[in-house]
Every structure is written in structure tokens, then in C-alpha cells.
Amino acid sequence: MVRIEEDPLGKKEIPEDAYYGIQTQRALENFPVSGLKVHPAMIRAYVMIKKAACLTNMELGQLDKKKGDAIVNACNEILDGKFQDQFVVDVYQAGAGTSFNMNVNEVIANRALEILGEKKGKYEIIGPNDHVNMAQSSNDTFPSAMCLSILFRIPKLLETLESLADAFEKKGKEFRDIVKSGRTHLQDAVPITLGQEFYAYASAIRRCTDRIKEKSKDLEEIALGGTAVGTGLNSHPKYRTLVIEKLREMTALDLRPARDPREGLQSFSSAVAFSGSLRDLAIELTRIANDLRLLSSGPVTGLAEITLPPVQPGSSIMPGKVNPVMAECLNMVAFQIIGNDLTVSLAEQAGQIDLNVFAPVINHNLHFSIDLLVNYLPVFEKKCVRGITANVEKCSLYLEKNPSLATALTPYIGYMKAAEVAKEALREGKSVIEVVVEKGLMKRDEVLKIFEEKLRGPLK
Q1: Where are the beta strands (DSSP E) in 110-159?
Q2: Domain with CATH 1.20.200.10 in the chain
């Protein structure tokens, strides 16, 4: 069964049970690109904007109460989780998100018509454009919904990152007394504790978390009410202020009007900056993952200072082999987020004159990056970080033979003599302590006392 709908380009058959309409149908035909649909958080944000707009237009006397109440009720049903399967537009779609905006408008309009006892498609009674989209444009609603939808997800992201940082910090405490060789340039360096290295990982994640918090604040400034080019054409003079007030009450977010709604439609710099904070996190995460892979390399011919929990067989041909697969997966997640950020950056710079039309791909990549983080980091924490163990004997063995231990003695014997000691220790395969004592530069108990005092520095 089908119904016939008409738009400025002509008529089309629409499945009778579909709540979307002709413009959505055109988008389905025009953009069968990825099979990926707009994120549920974006649906929620968009419907909230439609509800806030409807309430505002009724309050300002622009929209009939009977029609407005039906639209609000339809929005409430969607916000309660109904009709989610009706949002069918691909994430790669018409510029500015017009396809998705109309998808939302049509679903709300057709459900509102049903609430009034009317048939779907009777848009002369409640129309997607004239009533649901009143005082709006795709150009101001899509980027505003994008900001809202990201803000909805920030608490879960921050919770995930804080938990991961806590897990690394706990390992720092667990490994606080394990002194090992430091490495700079991948060469032996002065000692450090394994705990200090893990505390540093926690600190890096927390710094990135702070940056994400900071950059997300700019997303609270939205261009809603700017309509087509930021001038507010076809909206009541009080609409912009009032609709954002209602949205603030509805979302409990600290939303505020864009300081310049024209700039808000031309530029998505706040989204780019937020994407950059996710990229910065991804860079740190891949660095940490690489460290874990190096520190656990072996078990015989690598560093093997730590052991990562085995979670699956590592080879289809080599029996007993176990690979650092959780860290490898984190690398891949991080690479993808960095790639997503490049897409966001390219989309931002491609904006032209009074509108950046590439908001849909920016929106998709931001949500994709957040999905990767909130989905995988808890698993990485549970199956990798929490189960890391230290190979104390290996750490001690490397430390004992490390010629850079001579650095701690430079205040007592001078740089040149310390360099001689380091070279001889390396050449003869002896420890620094042995060489210093043999050369009569210091007594053994003096050296041991210095090492005991200097090698166990502060934990943080």
C-alpha cells in the first residue's frame, strides 16, 4: 500500500505505513551511500529543537495551539523512543543536512496528523515546512542539533576517560617501588620507577580530558534562530532568544545564543576545536599503547618489563604465542579518530561565503569518534590495563647493568670520570658499582647509599 505525496519537483509514491514523506523518499533514492544512519543522539537533539521551536511559536502567537499541541505530543513520543526506525536518511546526504531536517519534519508532521485523527500526508493541515519547520532552516537547526547531540554525550565520555586514568594511576601505586632503567631515544637512561611511568600515563589522559571539557564549552553557543543565513528571516523578533531559553530548560545545558549567528552558520570552528581535542587524546592513547607494546615485548627477546593479560591466541601458526592485541586495537581506534579529525578539518575549510554545507559529515565523524572511545576504552581498561603485571626480576636485571647509573655519581666524581665509568661498565659487561669501586673512586657503601637516596624519586 502506498500514498501519493507532492513537492515542488512533482509526485511520488510513499509506503503507506511510513511516517517520513516525499522529501525523505527522494533522499533515500539520491543518497544510498553508506547504509549508516544519523546517530540517535542527533535524532534526540533535533526533535528537542522542533519541540522548543513549536512551543516558542505558539507562545508568540505564530502557531495555532491545536496544531502546536499535536506537534509537541508527536515530539514527546519520539523522545520517548518511538518511531526511531523512521529516521532513514544516510549520514552522507544533501549539504547542510536538509535531507535529515526534512526527515524529522515529515515524521513529526505525519504523527501529529494522526494525533488529530487525520491521515498521513495531509500537509495542508499540519505541514513539515509550514508548521514543524516554522521559523527554522536546515542551516541553523542542523548545526545547533549537532552541538546539542555532542553535549549530550560529553558526561559519558568524561566518565570513561576518568576511569581509564584511575586505572593507570592504580597501577602507578602498585608499581611504585619497582625501580627500572629509564629510556630516552630508545637507549638506556637514568633510572625511573615503573610506577612513575604509569602515573605519567594517567596524567596524560587527564590533561586530554581537561582539554575536551574546555573545548566542549564552546558547543554551548548555538546559532539557532539564525534561519537561512544568520539574519533570522521569517522568524519573530523575540524567537531567537525565547527558543534557546526553552531549549536550555529542556536540556539542562548552559546554552546561549551565538554571539554572531552569521558566523555561526559560516563557521563550525567550535566543532573543529572539539574534534581537535579528540584527536589530541587519540595521539596520546596511541603513544601509550605503543609504550605498552614495547614494555611487554618478548617474552624472551624483547624488553618484557611488564606482562599484558593474555586474551586470545596470538597466532594461527605459532603455538603458544600471545600478542598485545588490546593495545593494537587501541592503536587502530586512535588512527581512525585522527582520520575523522582530518575529515572534520577539511569539511570546515570547505565552507563558502554565508554557509558551510558540510555539517552532516562533521556531525557523523564527531559521533563516530566518541562511539569508538566510549565503546572500546572500558574494554581496554578491563582486559588490559587492570591486569598488567610487572616483571620485577627483568627490571632489576636491566637496571643493574645500565651504564647510565653513573649519572647519579657525577656530583661526586665529575662528569668526565662518570663517563669513563659508564664506558668501561658497558665494555666489560660490569655494573657501574663494580667499576667505581675497582677504580677506587668511591666505596661500595657510599655508592649504594647514593643510589638508594636518588633512584627512588617522587611518585608524581
Answers
A1: none
A2: 151-178+191-220+266-392
pLDDT-derived band at 458 (thresholds 50, 70, 90) equals very low
CATH of 401-454, one of 1.10.10.10, 1.10.40.30, 3.40.50.11690, 3.10.129.10: 1.10.40.30
77-94, pLDDT tens digit by residue?
Answer: 999 999 999 999 999 999
Give the pLDDT band of residue 456 (cuts 50, 70, 90). Answer: low
Which tens digits make up the pLDDT trace of 399-419? Answer: 888 888 888 888 999 999 888
Q: Domain 2-134 classified CATH 1.10.275.10? A: yes
What pLDDT score was predicted for residue 406? Answer: 82
Rounded Cα–Cα distance for residues 285 and 205 (Å): 8
Architecture of the domain spanning 151-178+191-220+266-392: Up-down Bundle (1.20)
For the chain, give every residue range classified as CATH 1.10.40.30. 401-454
Distance of alpha carbon 355 from alpha carbon 41, whole angstroms:
24
Q: Locate CATH 1.10.275.10 in the chain.
A: 2-134
Rg (the chain; Cα; Å): 30
Answer yes or no: 315 catalytic.
yes
Decide if 64 contacts 112 (C-beta within 8 A).
no
Q: Which of 315, 316, 396, 404 is catalytic?
A: 315
Pick left, alpha or beta for residue 185 (phi over 0 → left; psi -120 to 50 → alpha; otherwise beta).
Answer: left
In three-state form (DSSP H/G/I as H, E/B as E, the rest C), the secondary structure along 261-318 is HHHHHHCCHHHHHHHHHHHHHHHHHHHHHHHHHHHCCCCCCCCCCEECCCCCCCCCCC
Closest CA to 223 of 157, 165, 139: 139
How many CB atoms neighbour CB 325 within 10 A? 16
